[in-house]
Amino acid sequence: MKKTGLFLLLVLALTFALPLPAMAAELDAVTDAAGLLTETERGELNDRAEELAKQYQCAVYIVILEDMEDMGGSDAYDLATAVYTEYDLGYGEEKSGLLLLLSMAERDYALIAYGYGNTAFTDYGKDVLLDENVLPLLGEDAYYEGFSTYLDTAGEYLGLARDGKPFDVENAPGYDETEGRYETGSSYATNARPKYDDEEFAIRLGAVILVPLLLAGGICLYWKRQMNTAVSARTADRYIPSDGFHLTGQQDTFLYRTETRRRIENHTSGGGHAGGTSMRSGGFSGRSGKF
Questions:
Q1: 285, 49, 68: which is closest to 150 by C-alpha?
Q2: How many helices (H) and strands (E) are present in the chain, helices listed first?
Q3: How many CB atoms lie within 10 A of CB 7?
Q4: How far is 126 from 80, CA to CA, in rounded Å?
Q5: What global pTM score does this model have?
Q6: Model pLDDT for residues 92-129, shown as the tens digit of each residue
Q7: CA-to-CA distance for 15 and 19, rounded, in angstroms?
Q8: Torsion sign, CA atoms 22, 25, 30, 32
Q9: Which of 4, 44, 52, 133 has the highest CB neighbour number within 10 Å of its CB?
Q10: What's the pLDDT tens digit per position in 155-204?
């Protein structure tokens, strides 16, 4: 009995000494501790992530937590780097990889890269991956779609990096170096306008221009008919009182104002629009925030 008691105390001591509670002996490529995905969805995403790692020698992870405070963390970025380090994640000797961590209680996220992941996923690449692809879906609670898009985009970036052209400001597909902007219609162009064929354009043009003109013409015609009994006066005498015009009051009315606004970027880190990757402590790069 004494030996059993000592053994239990030793186990408890070791458990509380660990910097992170053990979610598993080894993390899968996709770990869902919050139950957002069905087992079929998680398994399918996990297989795709493992295939990316084999194809490009760079691991891609998704870690979903119910509450990061249960893991002893209060900052999503710091917790993501701790998980990456403590669970010895990454591919090959360089431990190359990309990790997306979510904490559902706080709706916090962190995206970090390490090793070759810093080359394949530049600051600008991370911004586009998150802001244009993943975060809008996560914000609508479309989790499977968001994670699927995350893996698709990560695979695209890794393919570009393998060809020697990591996704960045000046060599992203559709970027015109002469104009310094993306071509209209490019999937990476900000506020890119949709293209319409000639017939659809004519219909839209008619709806926007002709319909309002017809409506305005009808209203004017109606008003004109209501004024048929009116007779134009040659002088203004009938509108002036016999004892003259007296101003009894005046009022200043504020009609217009000019307002200037400046956009403030909502990035806690990263924002690599100058190109390349900004390295942080421990050899990681990335950013974090709310979704």
A1: 49
A2: 9, 7
A3: 10
A4: 15
A5: 0.62
A6: 999 999 999 999 999 999 999 999 999 999 999 999 99
A7: 9
A8: negative
A9: 52
A10: 999 999 999 999 998 776 665 555 555 554 445 544 333 333 445 545 55
